[in-house]
Amino acid sequence: MNTAPASAPTEEPRWLTDREQGVWRSYIEATTLLEDYLDRQLQHDAGMPHVYYGLLVKLAESPRRRLRMTELAMHAKITRSRLSHAVARLEKHGWVRRENCPSDKRGQFAVLTDEGYEVLRRTAPGHVAAVRQAVFDRLTPEQQKSLGEIMRIVAEGLQPKEAGADLPWLR
Hints:
- By secondary structure, this protein is mostly helical.
- About 60% of the residues lie in helices and about 10% in strands.
- It has six helices and three strands, in the order ααβααββαα.
- The chain has helices at about 20-45, 50-60, 70-75, 80-95, 115-135, 140-155, and strands at about 65-70, 95-100, 105-110.
- α1 crosses α5 and α3 (about 70-75) packs across α4.
- The mean pLDDT is about 90.
C-alpha cells in the first residue's frame, strides 16, 4: 500500500543486496545473542542486567564515582526515563544513591556507593571472562581492530551533532 502523498514522487526503496542482507541478519543474530548471553551471566553473578552493570562501570570510572543523571544517560545511550527506572532499582540494592545538584535545583547526580563498588569489583572478573569468551577469543587481532573501527563508524553516524537531534538521552 502506497502511503506517500499523491503529489510526492514514489521511489523504489534501495533494497539490501543478498550479501548485505546476510551481513545484516548476522549482525542482528550476533548482537541479540550476545546481549542475552551477557545479561544471563550478570543476572547469575550479580542479579542485574547488562545495562545496570554498564551504569555501575561508568560511575566507577567517573571522578568521585558520580555523574549528572543526564550525562549518565548519554554515556549509557538510554532515555532519561529508562535511566531513572534503572537508578531507582540500583538504589533499592544500595548500590547507587542520588544527590541533588547544588548549582541546579532540577539536576541530580547518581553516585556509586561503596557497596555498589564492591559488587562491581566482585562481578567484573566474571563479566570480563564472558566478554572475552564470547567475542575476543573468537577473533584474530586484525578482526578485533576491524570490528572496533566498524562499530565506531556506525556509532558516530547515529549520533548527529546538530541541535535537536533525536537521541535517546535527549528524550
